[in-house]
């Protein structure tokens, strides 16, 4: 179905669309989300259709406040304590917590699972949208299935123009990499996806060890490696190998080979990203999208070396480089 996509900074337009069961792409501090009323199964089904995402992949439910968690998740035993500690330390912020669910979310939202991923985003526009809407907003990243996450409203329009009712424009996102996902079902929290909240941050807040489950596709369905890959084939390169890699690029192939690196290189097309992982992460997806737009076929990527977002950036780059066939 094709719709007339409205791009606007007007939160009221977005609230009205959500209330009518329509799709609203909105900014968060991580990436833009493709939102629908999390309690409305038909609206959530439209999210899957617009993205081209197979059903059964659970969506993250965005809330205005940690006070709303008890409506969506069952906080038996120690879970209430764990959630309180996480919320105090990291919300609003780039952390999604997977918990046992209540019946509040539509089955479509959680892909028929007994659990639900919840997050209070740290973005003034997202928070205002959620407050005025007054419910939970189910939202995966606002890209077509198999493309990198959007960090600007223009990226969303490129992917989903004509498929989403409203794109709420709140400028470029500040983190640029998807949220950390931690599963908290029992005594041993499991990190499902690294992000700006690190494993060490989680352990400090909870006072217990957090297991690393970020390699497990079964636990966090929808985290296929190809989710984080551009069309170009990504190859990770060590910093000290870059010059020799560039020197062997045949002149006939210069335009088809791109370089993303935290240093200035003597090659075009190239993207010089900041050397610290936070700045690098903020700009990475824009660079990958530009490379695709230029028709780059091979992308040589030198990762950053330090910073809070290092594990998250290396995780996404490693997945992009290990990409299997596209879906
Ligand atoms: O930063 C973010 O997390 C962004 C913004 C919009 O909040 N959202 C995002 O969603 O990146 P995305 O496209 O990665 O999809 C949500 C992911 C799924 O791939 C799934 O692995 C995980 O969240 N997830 C959601 N609910 C889950 C659950 N109940 N159990 C396990 N994993 C879950
Ligand atoms: Mg995604």
Search tags:
327 residues; alpha/beta; DHBP synthase; 15 strands; binds threonylcarbamoyladenylate; binds magnesium ion
Notes on the protein architecture:
The protein has two domains: 6-212, DHBP synthase; 233-321, Rossmann fold. It is 30% helix and 17% strand. It is built from ten helices and 15 strands. It has helices at residues 11-19, 41-51, 69-72, 79-90, 124-133, 153-160, 199-206, 242-247, 277-293, 310-321; strands at residues 6-8, 24-26, 33-37, 60-62, 95-100, 115-119, 137-139, 166-168, 180-183, 190-193, 211-212, 233-236, 257-261, 270-272, 298-301. The strands form two sheets. The protein has an eleven-stranded mixed sheet, sandwiched between helices. It has a four-stranded parallel sheet with strand order 12-15-13-14. α1 (11-19) crosses α5. Bound molecules: threonylcarbamoyladenylate and magnesium ion. Residues 28, 30-31, 33, 57-60, 96, 98, 110, 113, 115-117, 119, 139-141, 178-179, 181, 192, 220-223 line the site of threonylcarbamoyladenylate.
Which class best fits the helix and strand makeup?
alpha/beta
Helical coverage, percent range? 25-40%
- What is the assigned CATH homologous superfamily of the largest domain? DHBP synthase
Number of domains: 2
- How many β strands by DSSP? 15
| The CATH class of the largest domain | Alpha Beta
What do the pLDDT scores average to? 94
Order of helices and strands: EHEEHEHHEEHEHEEEHEEHEEHEH
Q: With helices defined by DSSP (H or I, 4 residues minimum), what is the helix count?
A: 10
Global morphology: globular
Radius of gyration over all CA atoms, rounded: 20 Å
User: Sheet bearing the most strands, described?
Assistant: 11 strands, mixed
CATH architecture call of the largest domain: Alpha-Beta Complex
Q: Distance between the terminal alpha carbons, to the nearest Å?
A: 21 Å
Q: Which ligands does the model contain, each kind named once?
A: threonylcarbamoyladenylate, magnesium ion
Tell me what portion of residues adopts beta-strand conformation.
15-25%
């Amino acid at each position: 179905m094709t719709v007339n996509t409205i791009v606007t900074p007007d939160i009221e337009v977005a609230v009205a669309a959500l209330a009518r069961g329509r799709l609203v792409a909105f900014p968060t501090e991580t990436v833009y989300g493709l939102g629908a009323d999390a309690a409305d199964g038909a609206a959530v089904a439209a999210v899957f259709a617009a993205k081209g995402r197979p059903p059964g992949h659970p969506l993250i439910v965005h809330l205005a406040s940690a006070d709303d968690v008890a409506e969506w998740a069952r906080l038996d035993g120690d879970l209430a304590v764990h959630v309180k500690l996480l919320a105090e330390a990291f919300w609003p912020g780039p952390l999604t917590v997977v918990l046992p669910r209540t019946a509040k979310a539509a089955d479509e939202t959680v892909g028929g699972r007994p659990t639900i991923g919840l997050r209070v985003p740290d973005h003034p526009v997202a928070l205002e949208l959620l407050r005025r809407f007054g419910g939970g907003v189910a939202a995966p990243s606002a890209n077509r299935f198999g493309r990198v996450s959007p960090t600007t409203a223009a990226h969303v329009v490129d992917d989903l123009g004509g498929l989403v009712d409203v794109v709420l424009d709140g400028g470029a996102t500040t983190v640029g990499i998807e949220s950390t996902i931690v599963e908290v079902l029992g005594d041993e929290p499991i990190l499902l996806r690294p992000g700006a909240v690190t494993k060490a941050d989680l352990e400090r807040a909870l006072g217990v060890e957090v297991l690393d489950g970020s390699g497990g596709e079964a636990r966090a369905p929808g985290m296929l490696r190809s989710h984080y890959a551009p069309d170009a084939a990504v190859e990770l390169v060590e910093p000290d190998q870059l010059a020799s890699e560039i020197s062997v690029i045949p002149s006939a192939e210069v335009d088809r080979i791109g370089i993303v690196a935290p240093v200035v290189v003597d090659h075009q097309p190239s993207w010089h990203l900041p050397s610290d992982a936070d700045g690098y992460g903020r700009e990475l997806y824009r660079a990958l999208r530009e490379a695709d737009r230029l028709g780059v076929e091979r992308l040589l990527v030198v990762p950053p070396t330090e910073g809070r977002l290092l594990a998250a950036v290396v995780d996404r780059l490693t997945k992009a480089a290990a990409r299997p066939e596209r879906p």
